[in-house]
Design goal:
The chain contains five helices and seven strands. With about 140 residues, it is an alpha+beta fold. InterPro entries: Acyl_CoA_acyltransferase, GNAT_dom.
């Protein structure tokens, strides 16, 4: 059974392990730990096994911003990113939710589009030669 819950300190090692499988190192350990401590990290589980997580902020022009979505490579293409995004938008502390991905990340662009996010702008010069595409979704759309 697929579930989404708020991450706890007990989840830290598993989240760092999943992140390391994706990026090849544990450089985001402190970031993940702080996000858990501040209650800004949610996890996707399959039968109580963590398969992915999402970290968000609420300081993007006073709106929620999904800063990181990571799904274990062995669990991709099974709807976990969508599950995390749906949960985040429906429980968002703000009515507007933003996120972003590089122009080169076609797979993540498709995930945003499938989940009803729309392009909201482009930021140049973050990654040389690979602009960041900003995406937006309104929580109000879910309420109507």
């Amino acid at each position: 059974m697929k579930t989404v819950v708020e991450a706890s300190n007990d989840d830290l090692e598993k989240l760092v392990q999943i992140d390391s499988k994706v990026i090849g190192n544990t450089s985001r350990r402190n970031y993940i730990e702080r996000s858990i401590e501040f209650g800004k990290c949610i996890v996707a589980k399959e039968n109580d096994v963590i398969v992915g997580f999402l970290i968000y902020e609420v300081n993007f022009f006073e709106c929620a911003f999904i800063s990181l979505i990571i799904v274990s490579p062995s669990s991709r293409r099974r709807g976990y990113a969508s599950l995390l995004m749906d949960y985040m938008v429906s429980s968002s502390p703000t009515t507007k939710v933003f996120s972003s991905t590089n122009r080169s990340n076609i797979n993540m662009q498709k995930v945003f589009e499938i989940n009803g996010f729309i392009q909201s702008g482009v930021v140049e010069n973050l990654d040389e030669g690979d602009p960041e595409i900003i995406y937006f979704k309104s929580k109000i759309e879910l309420l109507n």
